[in-house]
Amino acid sequence: MGLLLRWVFAFILLALTYNPTQWNYIRWTMDNYLEETPLSVLLGLLLVIGYIIYLRATLRSIGGFGMLLVLSVVGAMVWVLYDWNMLSLDNPNMNTWIGIFALSAVLGIGLGWSIVRRMLSGQYDMDDVED
């Protein structure tokens, strides 16, 4: 459950920043920056904090190569779905959502990698040991 929750929050973070609908930070800021500059800055800083938390944890747990590897696996899954005609890449909005899903998978796995490692190896991290 912990890994799924970390992925959901990564998906929400990315989708709040940008998605193909009108309900995202980028579009809202472009439309309302002059009238809502302080709120635009505040929301932008909150998003940056979220990205720093996720990126720092991901880089520390799986590193750049691990990020590339997870992204490659997700890309290969999309390729298989496309090859089996289960997925069409003609819709640009769907492609954006696929990209958001792929990036959120990388961030979610990166943040929850210690959970996966503990499940596979049975070894605890220092964060898991109680006082």
Folded structure, characterized:
- The protein has 131 residues and is an all-alpha fold.
- It contains six helices and no strands.
- α1 packs across α5, α2 runs antiparallel to α3 and α3 packs across α4.
- The longest helix has 25 residues.
- The radius of gyration is 17 Å and the shape is flat.
- The protein starts with a helix and ends in a 10-residue tail after the last helix.
- The mean pLDDT is 91.
Task: Walk me through the topology.
Layout: H1 2-17, H2 25-32, H3 37-61, H4 63-83, H5 92-111, H6 113-121
Summarize the structure.
The protein has 131 residues and is mainly alpha-helical. It has six helices and no strands.
Which labels suit this protein?
131 residues, mainly alpha, 0% strand
Distance separating the two termini: 24 Å
Beta content comes to under 5%
Query: Which spans of ≥5 residues are poorly predicted at pLDDT below 50?
Result: none
Whole-angstrom Rg: 17 Å
Helix content: over 70%
**Helix and strand sequence:** HHHHHH
* Total of helices: 6
- The geometry reads as flat
**Structure class:** mainly alpha
Mean pLDDT: 91
Instruction: Please summarize the sheet with the most strands.
Output: none
Beta strands, count:
0
